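Researcher: Let's do a round of design. I'm pasting the C-alpha cells now; please hold your answer until I've finished.
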C-alpha cells in the first residue's frame, strides 16, 4: 500500500493541512463540502503509482485554518487554493474536484490556464439564481451547540435524510432520491465531518449555492471532463451547460465512481503524458519565533504538534487525554521554545489505529521531542489526567527535565478508577445515533459530578455549568477516540500515581483550586 504523507504548510501565518503521495506529474484533488482530504484516501492509493497526488484541506475544513471574513465565494476558496499551490512550489498540474471542490477546481483552471494541464469535475453544480434563493438558509441552518446536546440528534437525522431527499429538508416525492441510504457507519463518518468544523460547514455549501455565474466553463482552455453520475442530484444540472468548447466534454456516467475512475485512467495517461514530474521537497523545521504546525511520524501514527522555536528550555504542554488539544491562543506563552502535541487519537493526530496505552502515548511524545530541540532542557506542563504520563517521560528524559507543572491532576485509587471506567460513555454506533447523546451527557456531567464517584450529593461539584461550546469540543474528541477511550483513561489514571509524582527527582508545582482539587489530593502533592 502506498504511503500517504500528511503535512502542514504555513501561508501568511495560516496553517494549511494536506496529503501527498506518489511520484510523477501532479494531480491535485479538491474535496466536497463538508468533508476534507481524508475522503481521497482510496483515490490517492489508485493514482499514486503514476502521479504525485496532492490533496489539501480547503480553508476552515479538516485541519486547515479558516480564512478571515464571511461570506466566502468560490473565487475566495480558489484564490486560497492557489496560494497553497504556490507555497508548495507546484507549477503545473491536473486538477480533480467533486461538488464544491469541482467549482473550486473549475475556477483554478479558468483563472490559471497556463498552469492547469487538465480538469476533471465529478458533479458540476450549475445552480440557478432561483435555486440559490430557494435553498439559502433552509439548507444550512446554523450549527450551534445546545446545553442539552440536542444539536447532535439533529445532525444525525440531518445527515441520514440527505440520502433520501434533495434538498434534505424537502420531503415531497418529487425530491426523493433512489440511492442507497446511509449505513450506521457512514452516518457516523458524515457526522464527524461536520463535527470537525462546526458551523464552518456552511461556508463551503453556501459558496456553491451562491455561485450561479457559469461562464468559466465556456472559457476553459485545457482538456476538461465534467462528469455527471447517476444517483447524484447534480445529474439534473448537466443540460444547463451549453455551447461548451469541443475540449470540454460533458459526460454522463451511469455506473458510479469506480466506472468513472476506470474511464479516467486512459484519458489522464494520454493527457498528462508529456507533463513534467513534480519534484517534492521537504521543508526544514522553521527556526523563527512564530508558531507553526507540523506532522511527526511516530509508532502511534502521525502526530500533529504546534511548535515555536526559541532559546532556553522547551515548554512541553500536554492537554488532558479525552479533551480537545490546546492551541497557542489558549496559552499565556512567554519567551522561549514551546511544543504542544495533539496526543495520539486526538485532534489532527486522530488518524491512528493504535491502542492508546500509556507506553504508546509516551513514545509518541518522545518522538515529537527528537530533532532540533533534542539538546534543550525541558519544562513539562500536564493538564488533568495527562499527569499520568509525567513519570515515564522523566524516566526517559532524565536530567533534561528541569521542572514539572501539573494543572488539576487526576489522582485516583483503585476503586475510583474502576468506577470511572465502568461509567464511560458507550462507543457502540447505533442506528438512531443515541451514542452521540450518551457521550454528551457523560462529558457534561463529569464537570458537575466527580466522574470517579457514584453519583450522589457527595459527588456534586459546586462549579459553574460548562458552556455548550466547551462540552461540544470535548465530545468531538470522545467520539474520535471511540472504544480506545477506556485504555487511554485506564493507563493515565493508574492507582499509585500520587506516590510516583511525589518521588520525582525534579521540582514539582501544582496549579489547582479547591473546587477542582478532589479531596485536596493535588494540594497535598505540593506540600
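Researcher: That's everything. Go ahead.
Model: Designed sequence:
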Amino acid at each position: 500500500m502506498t504511503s500517504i504523507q500528511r503535512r502542514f504548510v504555513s501561508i501568511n501565518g495560516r496553517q494549511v493541512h494536506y496529503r501527498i503521495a506518489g511520484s510523477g506529474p501532479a494531480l491535485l484533488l479538491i474535496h466536497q463540502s463538508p468533508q476534507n482530504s481524508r475522503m481521497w484516501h482510496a483515490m490517492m492509493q489508485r493514482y499514486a503509482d503514476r502521479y504525485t497526488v496532492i490533496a489539501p484541506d480547503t480553508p476552515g475544513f479538516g485541519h486547515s485554518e479558516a480564512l478571515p471574513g464571511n461570506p466566502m465565494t468560490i473565487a475566495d476558496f480558489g484564490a486560497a487554493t492557489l496560494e497553497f499551490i504556490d507555497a508548495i512550489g507546484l507549477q503545473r498540474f491536473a486538477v480533480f474536484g467533486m461538488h464544491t471542490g469541482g467549482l473550486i477546481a473549475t475556477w483554478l483552471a479558468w483563472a490559471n490556464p497556463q498552469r492547469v494541464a487538465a480538469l476533471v469535475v465529478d458533479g458540476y453544480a450549475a445552480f440557478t439564481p432561483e435555486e440559490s434563493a430557494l435553498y439559502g438558509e433552509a439548507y444550512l441552518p446554523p450549527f450551534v451547540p445546545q446545553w442539552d446536546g440536542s444539536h447532535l440528534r439533529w445532525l444525525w437525522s440531518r445527515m441520514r435524510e440527505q440520502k433520501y431527499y434533495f434538498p434534505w429538508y424537502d420531503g415531497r416525492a418529487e425530491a426523493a432520491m433512489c440511492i442507497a441510504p446511509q449505513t450506521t457507519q457512514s452516518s457516523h463518518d458524515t457526522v464527524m465531518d461536520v463535527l470537525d468544523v462546526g458551523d464552518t460547514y456552511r461556508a463551503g455549501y453556501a459558496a456553491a449555492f451562491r455561485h450561479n455565474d457559469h461562464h468559466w466553463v465556456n472559457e476553459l482552455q485545457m482538456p476538461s471532463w465534467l462528469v455527471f453520475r447517476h444517483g447524484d442530484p447534480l445529474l439534473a444540472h448537466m443540460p444547463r451547460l451549453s455551447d461548451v468548447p469541443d475540449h470540454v466534454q460533458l459526460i454522463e456516467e451511469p455506473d458510479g465512481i469506480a466506472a468513472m475512475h476506470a474511464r479516467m485512467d486512459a484519458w489522464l495517461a494520454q493527457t498528462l503524458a508529456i507533463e513534467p514530474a513534480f519534484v517534492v521537497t521537504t521543508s526544514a523545521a522553521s527556526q523563527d519565533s512564530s508558531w507553526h504546525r507540523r506532522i511527526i511520524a511516530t509508532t502511534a501514527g502521525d502526530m500533529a504538534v504546534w511548535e515555536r522555536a526559541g532559546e532556553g528550555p522547551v515548554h512541553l504542554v500536554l492537554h488532558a487525554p479525552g479533551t480537545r488539544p490546546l492551541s497557542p491562543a489558549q496559552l499565556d506563552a512567554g519567551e522561549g521554545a514551546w511544543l504542544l502535541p495533539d496526543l495520539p487519537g486526538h485532534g489532527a493526530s486522530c488518524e491512528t489505529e493504535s491502542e492508546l496505552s500509556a507506553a504508546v502515548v509516551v513514545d509518541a511524545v518522545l518522538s515529537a521531542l527528537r530533532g532540533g530541540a533534542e539538546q534543550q532542557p525541558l519544562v513539562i506542563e500536564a493538564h488533568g489526567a495527562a499527569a499520568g504520563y509525567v513519570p515515564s517521560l522523566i524516566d526517559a528524559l532524565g536530567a533534561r527535565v528541569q521542572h514539572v507543572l501539573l494543572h488539576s491532576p487526576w489522582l485516583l485509587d483503585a476503586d475510583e478508577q474502576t468506577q470511572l471506567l465502568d461509567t464511560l460513555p458507550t462507543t457502540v454506533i447505533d442506528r438512531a445515533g443515541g451514542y452521540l447523546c450518551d457521550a454528551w451527557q457523560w462529558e457534561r456531567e463529569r464537570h458537575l459530578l466527580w466522574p470517579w464517584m457514584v453519583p450522589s450529593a457527595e459527588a456534586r461539584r459546586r462549579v459553574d455549568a460548562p458552556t455548550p461550546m466547551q462540552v461540544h469540543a470535548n465530545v468531538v474528541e470522545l467520539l474520535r477516540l471511540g472504544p480506545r477511550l477506556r485504555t487511554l483513561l485506564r493507563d493515565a489514571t493508574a492507582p499509585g500515581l500520587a506516590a510516583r509524582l511525589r518521588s520525582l527527582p525534579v521540582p514539582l508545582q501544582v496549579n489547582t483550586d479547591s473546587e477542582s482539587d478532589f479531596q485536596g489530593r493535588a494540594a497535598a502533592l505540593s506540600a
